[in-house]
């Protein structure tokens, strides 16, 4: 039985449709992420699951039980939002105990559960303090402790890390995942940050303009984007017009202006069924710059000119021209620091390319 199951849920605000029919089954104990740019409907979807918003259409089930008419406090969910929302005039322990007070948990048992939750978020000694005496990261851990102390069926997290600064955010990412695995709670995480989604999720649901673009494991959505939107949103991709000349059982043969002919594995273009115009997708970090004249020894290569370099510390983003086409590459800066005007060879592997049908 799915932990959460959405069947064709829709949300309209007046004339505007924020979420188009969306269906989804979320496995017990999994960590799934709704990923997409601001305004794509992530929070709206989460709020419908939480019971903070009524869907305009469709059904929501939690552990097999239809919950459309079940109010929020009877859905047994843990909620954490971006801005911790702790009660300022309650102590940390009172904050964490809040959800237990509704559940007829005895005083002694409540104290034990609060202590265990504070242990789990690695803040065992702050129960007597007030939220404003804690750092942002600590407050967010308390918000998490408050959400999990009730042993929720599902944990709903709406951009819980985005108010934290970059280093702390990375630490909390690891921490949150550790806690989720430890207690095994089904978790729905919302973020617009693709690195967060890739690092934490069992499954990613990529959304755009109220629709699901792709559902899959991080490697799958990253390596085999189903749409141009997914290819661009999960890191920088080059998308080039190409001709598919032959479709065979295990390969797609491709032709691009100024490139050598090459073939990609069949599974890298699952939606291509016949020869004709297609779009070739290759990620910026899969194009490797080498000095002009470097021999190709079996690896695909194409001559390019460096038009611009965006230095990023460990790596650089190169703006390149191949014939009339503009491409981007992101490379670690190792032995070959290329500068504007340099003639280079771009090396890439066929298995790192994907093909999409024309839209
Ligand atoms: P996200 O969380 O992905 O940034 P939201 O789910 O908050 O996006 O919003 C999706 C769209 O629905 C946005 O265009 C937003 O302006 C709109 N929207 C959200 N809530 C309301 C509301 N209460 N009334 C009208 N429009 C809303
Ligand atoms: Mg949001």
UniProtKB/TrEMBL annotation:
Q: Give membrane topology per the record.
A: Peripheral membrane protein
One Pfam family hit:
ABC_tran
Q: Which Gene3D superfamilies match?
A: 2.40.50.100, P-loop containing nucleotide triphosphate hydrolases (3.40.50.300)
Q: Report the InterPro entries cross-referenced here.
A: AAA+_ATPase, ABC_SmlMolc_Importer, ABC_transporter-like_ATP-bd, ABC_transporter-like_CS, Mo/tungstate-bd_C_term_dom, P-loop_NTPase, Transp-assoc_OB_typ2
An example of a GO molecular function for this protein is: ATP binding
Q: Keywords of this protein's UniProt record, alphabetized?
A: ATP-binding, Nucleotide-binding, Transport
Which PROSITE patterns is this protein grouped with? ABC_TRANSPORTER_1, ABC_TRANSPORTER_2
Could you tell me where this protein is found in the cell? Cell inner membrane
Gene Ontology cellular component terms for the protein in this record: ATP-binding cassette (ABC) transporter complex
Q: What main location does UniProt list?
A: membrane
Give residue ranges for domain ABC transporter.
4-234
Quote the SUPFAM superfamilies the UniProt record gives: MOP-like, P-loop containing nucleoside triphosphate hydrolases
PANTHER family, sorted: SPERMIDINE/PUTRESCINE IMPORT ATP-BINDING PROTEIN POTA, SPERMIDINE_PUTRESCINE IMPORT ATP-BINDING PROTEIN POTA
- What is stated as this protein's family in its record? Belongs to the ABC transporter superfamily.
What's the protein here called? Putative spermidine/putrescine transport system ATP-binding protein
């Amino acid at each position: 039985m799915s932990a959460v199951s959405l069947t064709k849920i829709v949300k309209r605000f007046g004339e505007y449709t924020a979420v188009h029919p969306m269906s989804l089954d979320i496995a017990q104990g999994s960590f799934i992420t709704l990923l997409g740019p601001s305004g794509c409907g992530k929070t709206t979807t989460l709020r419908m699951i939480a019971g903070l918003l009524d869907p305009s259409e469709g059904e929501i089930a939690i552990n097999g039980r239809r919950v459309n008419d079940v109010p929020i406090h009877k859905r047994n969910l843990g909620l954490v939002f971006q801005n911790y929302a702790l009660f300022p005039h309650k102590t940390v322990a009172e904050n964490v105990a809040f959800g237990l007070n509704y559940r007829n948990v005895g005083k002694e048992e409540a104290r034990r559960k609060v202590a265990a939750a504070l242990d789990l978020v690695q803040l065992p000694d702050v129960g007597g303090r007030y939220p404003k005496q804690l750092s942002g990261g600590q407050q967010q851990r308390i918000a998490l402790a408050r959400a999990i102390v009730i042993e929720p069926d599902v944990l709903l997290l709406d951009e819980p890390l985005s108010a934290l600064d970059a280093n702390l955010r990375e630490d909390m990412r690891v921490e949150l995942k550790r806690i989720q695995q430890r207690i095994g709670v089904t978790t729905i995480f919302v973020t617009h940050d693709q690195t967060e989604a890739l690092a934490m999720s069992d499954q990613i649901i990529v959304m755009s303009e109220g629709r699901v673009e792709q559902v899959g494991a991080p490697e799958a959505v990253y390596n085999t984007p189903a749409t141009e939107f997914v290819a661009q949103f999960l890191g920088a991709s080059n998308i080039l017009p190409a001709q598919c000349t032959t479709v065979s059982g295990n390969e797609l043969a491709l032709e691009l202006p100024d490139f050598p002919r090459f073939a990609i594995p069949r599974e890298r273009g699952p939606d291509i069924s016949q020869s004709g115009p297609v779009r070739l997708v290759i990620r910026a970090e899969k194009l490797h710059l080498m000095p002009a004249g470097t021999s190709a020894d079996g690896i695909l290569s194409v001559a390019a000119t460096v038009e611009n370099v965006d230095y990023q510390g460990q790596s650089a983003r190169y703006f390149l021209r191949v014939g009339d086409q503009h491409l981007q590459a992101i490379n670690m800066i190792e032995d070959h620091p290329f500068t504007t005007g340099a003639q280079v060879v771009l090396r890439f592997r066929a298995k790192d390319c994907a093909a999409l049908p024309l839209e």
